[in-house]
Write a structure and sequence with these properties.
The structure holds two protein chains of two kinds. By secondary structure, chain A is an alpha/beta fold. Chain A folds into three domains: about 100 residues, Orthogonal Bundle (Fumarate Reductase Iron-sulfur Protein, Chain B, domain 2); about 160 residues, FAD/NAD(P)-binding domain, CATH 3.50.50; about 140 residues, FAD/NAD(P)-binding domain (3-Layer(bba) Sandwich), CATH 3.50.50.60. Chain A is built from 17 helices and 19 strands. In chain A, helix 4 runs antiparallel to helix 5. Chain A starts with 16 loop residues before the first helix and ends with a helix. An eight-stranded parallel β-barrel of chain B has the order 3-4-7-8-9-10-15-16, surrounded by seven helices. In chain B, helix 1 links the parallel strand 3 and strand 4. By secondary structure, chain B is of the alpha/beta class. Classes of the chains: A alpha/beta, B alpha/beta.
Amino acid sequence: MPNSPLTPGIVPGRLPEDAIRENFSDLHPPMDAHEAAVAADRCYFCHDAPCMEACPTAIDIPMFIREIATKSVDSAARTIFSQNILGGMCARVCPTETLCEEACVRMDAEEDPVEIGRLQRFATDHLMAKNTHPFTRAEPTGKRIAVVGAGPAGLACAHRLAMKGHDVVVFDFRPRPGGLNEYGIAAYKSTDDFAQAEVAWLMRIGGIEIRHGQRLGEGLSLDALRAEYDAVFLGIGLQGVNALGIAGEDLEGVVNAVDFIADLRQAEDLARVPVGRDVVVIGGGMTAIDAAVQAKLLGALNVSLVYRRGRERMAASAYEQELAAAKGVHIITNARPVALHGDGAVREAEFEYTREEEGTLMGTGETFRIRADQVMKAIGQTLLGAPEGLEIKGGKIAVTGAGRTGAEGIWAGGDCASGGDDLTVTAVAEGRDAAEDIHATLMA
Amino acid sequence: MADLSTNFVGIKSPNPFWLASAPPTDKEYNVRRAFEAGWGGVVWKTLGEAGPPVVNVNGPRYGAIWGPDRRLIGLNNIELITDRPLEVNLREIKAVKRDYPDRALVVSLMVPCEEEAWKRILPLVEETGADGIELNFGCPHGMSERGMGSAVGQVPEYVEMVARWCKANTRMPVIVKLTPNITDIRHPARAAFRGGADAVSLINTINSITAVDLDNMAPEPTIDGKGTHGGYCGPAVKPIALNMVAEIARDEETRGKPISAIGGITTWKDAAEFMALGAGCVQVCTAAMTYGFRIVEEMIAGLSEWMDEKGHATLDDFIGKAVPNVTDWQFLNLNYVTKAEIDQDLCIKCGRCFAACEDTSHQAIAMSEDRVFTVKDEECVACNLCVDVCPVEGCITMRELKPGEVDPRTGRVVEKDYANWTTHPNNPGSGCAAE
């Protein structure tokens, strides 16, 4: 008998294959040309546009939308890519509802913004489908730069450096490039192996080599990189996961949400990804939402997302919260984990209600238990394996200006570096800006 | 409910909405359905001489321009007059008029510029029981190459001559349809009335090329790689038509003469505007060709509602009421001073007013760091561009400065009395040149 949502334990194939395929189809389907024309016409071409201001990569949004409106779609894509070479992925994963689309003046007018994200995808998909690369490299400079981490920050940095005529070697410990674009992010936001297609397309600029299986501190040292290369950029992300620090954390069935998501993203067949019947996700950020929603889409019977503070404090946007609720995730707020119970494998998660007084979280003393055969921890990631000798501030590599660390010749950006939100688009901006700074420094 | 019944040069219809002479009125089937839908009248598509009918192209007859959602803004056509035999049209006209005696049925005509040709066709039309005739002196394409249509309408002497022939040879009211493809519309209008015409109708279509196919390097619509100019109509031409109607309505020689207005009328409001400028009835084509006959329901309902709101019991209560307010530039009050004013509660902070004013006008709008846009009264000339580019209706308005207030731009006190260019000291012809 095949598995169903009712099957106890952590098992694959709770839903028929076609149901899973349907569940994991594009969250925001692509626009066709007419849809794009109509959507583009809603843009007012604002002066000094607030949307552009709100975009961490400062894409000239009114201009690219005008280019779509006039059917110069490749030009629109160039406008996007000139600021954000991962504009294709950002069009899919950006929380536009808290960035460009929240700033759209049409929010003021009618609470219905121009669909900037989907328009960006329309333009970037259009150019990428031609399988051409819009940029060419400058004359070779003879400079060589090491980039550690093939995630959004590293890739954006590498691409900009390659454009400037430098040669770049990217080191990454994982077998595939892309970082969280490949190993994080909900699958329904990046369908059809888009992350890999995007990296392959980006690499067409030339002058970038990616070496996999290379981790700082494990055969790769910062000192050696500094000695061999003219500059080093660190985009190593946050590889550690915060522990709950409660009893029962080592029970079977207790996993890191990031690992669940990575496994799911790497699975060749989603029907073979095992998931619990009663899943409890602990945390209130995007990782928690992505894990909870995907557990539900795989066929988990009950998925509870438990966050220790109030809803308004959740890092996940209101849109993401609504998405989770619509998919059937039960969101519980103001409850903190106190213990996980079970005999070998987890069976229950115990929480205590909380209240917040002047910013301080306090338990109320009242507890409750939720049935759980799988518990996913999503209470934040931490910097792991940062090289010795770099200043750490607030758990991140301290940087000033365009990603300059205190150490000469070393830049950092993305989630591992201080400042900015932990977003793909922010990482791209930081990688790009560090590249410009590296270029200016080396060519001075 | 307001009374919409219309009596236009003795032609009666239950409402002022007629379908213009065009493809929708080319045959009995269409006209019957139009009358069932509620249209007050039709002008039957132009009939030509007896004998082999004209032929049309077998490729596209229409070209268009659209808004981004394919909303049709302007339409152009290269269709000729009816390509069906004269006797078939006459038979159908007679049958329709017999069955719809309360509706206006006017027949459009275009025959060569010879009195005999008109003498031949007029009795045939009269025999159908039609209410009147409209002389097609307007079509700018095809027929004009053969000395008809706009080729006649562009020569006032011909307009007058043919109108006179028609009046001499029929008891039916004669409406002369004017072409806008002319420098001064008043000349053919005056000529029509001098020739005895009962009314003029305008505008016919405007010579146009809608687009150029950049792949084939050919104008659109394209027939086997070539294109020709066609007649432009639809919402885009309305402002041109409004002006031409107004020019005739306020001309000394033609003031108060009956006008049937045509040109981009799409809603009841468009119709009301033309009627305010003196039109006794309106003719519609493109809107019907775009949306079908049912739109007349909205036109009737909307016009009635507005008339009720305004207390107009009949059409005559407002026809022509805007004509006295159409004047020459030289008579506009130069002591009327306004300033743009931005309603901060309505402002959505798009900054279009700022960009427009800063880049292309008078640098009279200030933008603060937090995107608050305000008018600099000392720079504002009240050009209205900010009002026109603002996406929020009613957000930017023009405030009239009261007499006694100082205009910060000129430093002058606003005067109470009307004064225009004719008496302005800068006018060399005013007789009181600036010192």
